[in-house]
From TrEMBL:
Entries under CDD domains matching the protein: ASKHA_NBD_BcrAD_BadFG_HgdC_HadI
The organism of origin for this protein: Pseudodesulfovibrio aespoeensis (strain ATCC 700646 / DSM 10631 / Aspo-2) (Desulfovibrio aespoeensis)
Principal EC category: oxidoreductase
Keyword field: Iron, Iron-sulfur, Metal-binding, Oxidoreductase
Lineage summary: Bacteria, Pseudomonadati, Thermodesulfobacteriota, Desulfovibrionia, Desulfovibrionales
Pfam families: BcrAD_BadFG
Chain ranges of the ATPase BadF/BadG/BcrA/BcrD type domain: 3-255
Gene Ontology molecular-function annotations: benzoyl-CoA reductase activity; iron-sulfur cluster binding; metal ion binding
Record's protein name: CoA-substrate-specific enzyme activase
PANTHER family: ACTIVATOR OF (R)-2-HYDROXYGLUTARYL-COA DEHYDRATASE, BIFUNCTIONAL PROTEIN [INCLUDES 2-HYDROXYACYL-COA DEHYDRATASE (N-TER) AND ITS ACTIVATOR DOMAIN (C_TERM)-RELATED
Keyword Zinc included in the entry's annotation: no
The enzyme's E.C. designation: 1.3.7.8
Length: 277
């Protein structure tokens, strides 16, 4: 069994592969003790190899597993996970809890995925990330899981000039005080995120099809606006895994599988096990 562990700022994901298939896919929110959380996710597993990725990837050294350990960058993990699920991918966009990654891929050939040729990563602040959405959703007293659907009810969105989380909150509060419908303000906040994201994609020279990973890929407003900005079709030009936030852990597991056995998993477009949160 090979295990990939994506230790992020907002959540930890685990994917285990064995005998040519995914046998476990688990997720837990990150707390102040990620090592204990990782140990809990690994309970009952006896990995032959474990590969870590994400902000906390070096924490795998503290798990005391007694098996070979290694780590890979988030860029490599998301590229491997995304292109395993969609071999035709030419770009990857990952919007997670604390950063955004735009990755351009060379064209694949003979059924093989393309390699990373250029990437850009915004990890210096929470602007345009899941944390930004979570924080601004709190201004509207709406659960972040419902924020995208709420924003889609808006129309004629105001322009949000600042992507700083604190300043964006101030702008939103000021717009509310002036009588702007809150749904429209929420739509404006989503448009600001997408505009920033599209600029990042442009700087890396993205091409379609694009695989959208990370928890924010579950936000229907971000997805709708992204497709509109890129003049792209969802499902053909923009591809979303069944569980977009598991792509990094899947990529880490694939890296471990290739490193240990020299083989890959059979290609499919789904992570079979249901995720236990």
């Amino acid at each position: 069994m090979i295990v990939g562990l994506d230790i992020g700022s907002r959540s930890i994901e685990l994917v285990a592969v064995q005998n040519g298939e995914v046998v476990r896919a688990l997720r837990a929110p990150t707390t102040f003790d990620p090592v204990s959380q990782c140990a809990g996710l690994l309970e009952g597993l006896r990995p032959a190899s474990l590969v870590g990725t994400g902000y906390g990837r070096n924490l795998i050294q503290c798990l005391g597993l007694g098996c070979p350990l290694s780590s890979i960058t988030e860029i490599k993990a998301h590229a491997m996970g995304a292109t395993h699920l969609f071999a035709q991918a030419r770009s990857v966009l990952d919007i997670g809890g604390q950063d955004t990654k735009a990755i351009a891929l060379a064209p694949g050939h003979e059924g093989q995925p393309g390699r990373v040729v250029k990437f850009e990563m915004n990890d210096r602040c929470a602007a345009g990330t899941g944390k930004f959405l979570e924080y601004t959703a709190g201004v509207f007293q709406i659960p972040v899981e419902m924020f995208g659907a709420y924003a889609l009810k808006g129309s004629d969105p105001p322009e949000i000039s600042s992507m700083c989380t604190v300043f964006a909150e101030t702008e939103a509060t000021s717009l509310m005080a002036r009588g702007t419908p809150p749904e429209s303000i929420a739509l404006g906040l989503h448009k600001a995120i997408v505009k920033r994201t599209v600029n990042m994609l442009g700087r890396v020279g993205f091409a379609l099809p694009l695989v959208f990973t990370g928890g924010v890929a579950n936000n229907p407003c971000v997805l709708t606006l992204l497709a509109r900005e890129l003049k792209a079709e969802i499902g053909t030009d923009i591809l979303i895994p069944d569980q977009p936030d598991m792509a990094g852990a899947l990529g880490a597991a694939l890296a471990g599988l290739v490193g240990l056995t020299g083989t890959d998993l059979p290609r499919h477009s789904s992570l079979a096990p249901r995720v236990n949160s």
